[in-house]
What does this fold into?
Amino acid sequence: VLTDYCKGCGVCVRECPIKGAISIETVYAPDGSLRKSPVVHEPCVGCGVCEMICPTEPGSIEIVPREVWRT
It folds into this structure.
């Protein structure tokens, strides 16, 4: 997730085919400021819809394959 680019529009949440896989939340950026950011949750299957539909340039979400969920 590229927090610096997210505008908090929520298009990724609306277009995601998996309920509960992504949300837009307010997070602290590295500089301490509050920003909107997509947060990916465990139901995510890595389909890439959010990455393709994100209107920011560069996109605010990048799908990276993973082996298992880590907590």
